[in-house]
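Thread: quick sanity check before group meeting

JM: Hey all, I'm pulling together slides for Thursday and realized we never actually wrote out the predicted structure for the chain we discussed last week. Dropping the sequence here so it's in one place. If anyone has concerns about the input, flag it before I start.
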Amino acid sequence: MANRLTQIATRTGDDGSTGLGDGSRVPKDHLRVQAMGDVDELNSSLGVLLAEPLPADVRELLVVVQHELFNLGGELSIPGYQLLKPEALLTLDNALEQHNATLPRLAEFILPAGTRSAALAHVSRSIARRAERAVVALGAQEKVNDAPRQYLNRLSDLMFVLARVLNRANLDGLGGDDVYWKSERLSRQQD
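JM (edit): ok, ran it. Output follows.
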């Protein structure tokens, strides 16, 4: 493969524009660039999560997800191009099914808390939701393939499930279960 990045500081963006993968230039606040940035931030947040102690299967899955997010970002950077394959969504669906099967049903809403790794998974979940909203906004203005939106939607669900898995894995010794929301309304109903 050819070396694609020969120079990082090109100064071509000093005018407030950035280059897309097809060679065109758009303003840095363009909806496409915002979506790409949110996907990049999501990938970075997964990198932080991967710096934590994780079960081997979760680590392996997140590394695959990082590569797919890079594909997704590449697809967004080249209007009309497809890089994200249907198998990527299937991988998330299978992981959701596998990990959900190990968890007890939720009786109440949970807080984005618990172990450090679970909390970081929740941060990634919320960034995935933002990235999904950015892709939806872009899709309202320009043609965007369905796969990026679907992948981000499914990934946010998976990150919620993985947060619960990581709380139970308790690899830092500070968790062990979901942290349930204490609803004042529900407390009053139970009294």
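AS: nice. The helical segments are 31-50, 56-77, 86-100, 116-141, 146-169, 184-190. The chain has a mean pLDDT of 86.
JM: adding both to the slides.
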